Amino acid sequence: MNALMRLNQLKPGLQYKLVSQTGPVHVPVFTMAVEVDGTTFEASGPSKRTAKLHVAVKVSTAFKGKTLRFDTTSNPTAHIPSHCVN
């Protein structure tokens, strides 16, 4: 399971936003952002999908060893800490 899949499993409903698209048409650079627990994370990549993955890696790194806050009203299993999820 990659970082994006894990983050979406732990924090369903996150809204990833396209911040910018730069570079020439044949070599674009996409910058995506996501807000998690009040903090906005940004990352770039050669595709929107890759940029989202890079954002998820940044979030995972930032919260390593910490427990993400969950909205248990929409996900009754959200109280499970990230280190307990396969």
Helix-strand layout with pairing:
Layout: H1 3-10, E1 17-22, E2 29-36, E3 39-45, H2 48-62
Antiparallel strand pairs: 1-2, 2-3
Account of the protein in words:
- A three-stranded antiparallel beta sheet has the order 1-2-3, with helices on one face.
- It is built from two helices and three strands.
- It has one domain: 2-Layer Sandwich (Double Stranded RNA Binding Domain).
- The protein has helices spanning 3-10, 48-62; strands spanning 17-22, 29-36, 39-45.
- By secondary structure, the chain is α+β, with helices and mostly antiparallel strands.
- The longest helix has 15 residues, at 48-62.
- It starts with a helix and ends in a 24-residue tail after the last helix.
Rg calculated over all Cα atoms? 14 Å
Taken together, the total number of domains comes to 1
Count every helix, treating DSSP H or I runs of 4 or more residues as helices.
2
How many DSSP E strands? 3
Task: Give me the CATH fold name.
Answer: Double Stranded RNA Binding Domain
Instruction: Label the structural class.
Output: alpha+beta
The average pLDDT value, as a whole number, equals: 83
Helix-strand string: HEEEH
Largest sheet: 3 strands, antiparallel
* Proportion in β-strands: 15-25%
Judging by the overall fold, what is the CATH architecture? 2-Layer Sandwich
- Terminal CA distance reads 8 Å
